[in-house]
Design goal:
Structural class: alpha/beta
Number of strands: 12
Strand order of the largest sheet: 6-7-8-3-9-10
Largest sheet: 6 strands, mixed
Helix content: 25-40%
Number of helices: 10
Shape: globular
């Protein structure tokens, strides 16, 4: 198993944001973390990446306790792909991808021919080889996400941690990115992806981790976990989970907010009052 979390707790200062989270994912899996903002998804990522210390529990990566891994060993196992990256310098795309090789050589070494070949191969895997000579600053948001994924591939990591990778993309680039995620899983990578869309587990995921208040509200296959009842519990609103066929007969599952008879605004007003009272 590439990634195993057992009763993981952690947070900032003296308080735990993530509480008793257990889940697992292996090569070929796409584990989708689903839940509202501020409910522990990003904190859980920081615990997995080692930028936050566990207060209790354990994380094993490729069978090894994460606490025993050096920063270089961690970088060779886990790659982080942020939802947005603002470039400072106008590096070429090839240079950005080759930066993923940093954990493979010392501070005084420079990239070798083998590193360049690895960068070209990574770009080819995300169908972005034609962008190799472009300036990274000239790319669109969708193209930058592909390059960040190529950098993670070049890093030779086996686990990819993606923080809402499609959050800032237009619809076409959103769909393209999801196809790339599925292709990466098909090549044996373990993908851990947070998302605001409860539909993503159905379209790209093999496992879903539904979070509420930093705890596990459900973990398992998307069809087991993403249900009208569980979504209402987590998001505080009624939702239907519907499977339809597109024009080519392909089955797709979507999640639809349900508007009951009457003014739905009163529901949100009551929810807001409840949050202020807490």
């Amino acid at each position: 198993m590439l990634l195993e979390l057992h009763q993981v707790c952690g947070g900032y200062g003296s308080g735990d944001v993530v509480k008793d989270v257990s889940c697992h994912a292996d090569g070929g899996d796409v584990l989708c973390l689903v839940g509202p903002n501020g409910r522990g998804k990003t904190t859980l990522f920081r615990l997995i990446l080692g930028s936050l210390s566990l207060s209790s529990g354990s994380i094993r990566i490729d069978g090894r306790d994460s606490k025993q891994l050096t920063p270089r060993e961690m970088a060779n196992l886990v790659a982080y792909i942020p939802q947005y990256h603002r470039p400072i310098f106008a590096y070429s795309v090839l240079d950005i991808v080759m930066m993923g090789r940093a954990s493979h050589f010392s501070s005084f070494e420079t990239p070798k021919a083998a590193d360049r070949e690895a960068a070209f191969a990574a770009l080819e895997k995300v169908n972005a080889l034609h962008l190799a000579d472009w300036k990274y600053t000239a790319l669109s948001g969708g193209q930058r996400q592909l390059i960040l994924i190529a950098r993670a591939i070049c890093q030779s990591a086996r686990v990819f941690v993606m923080d809402e990778p499609a959050a800032n993309l237009d619809y076409a680039n959103h769909q393209l990115l999801m196809e790339v995620v599925k292709e990466l899983a098909g090549k044996g990578y373990c993908i851990v992806m947070s998302t605001h869309s409860p539909e993503h587990p159905f379209s790209v995921g093999s496992k879903a981790l539904l979070m509420k208040e930093g705890r596990v509200a459900g973990f398992g296959s998307p069809r087991q976990i993403i249900t009208p009842e569980s979504l209402e519990e987590v998001y505080g609103m009624e939702m239907d989970v519907v499977t339809i066929g597109d024009r080519y007969g392909v089955k797709r599952t979507i999640c639809l907010p349900v508007k009951a008879p009457g003014d739905i605004r009163s529901v949100y007003a009551a929810k807001e009052r409840e949050q202020w009272e807490v």
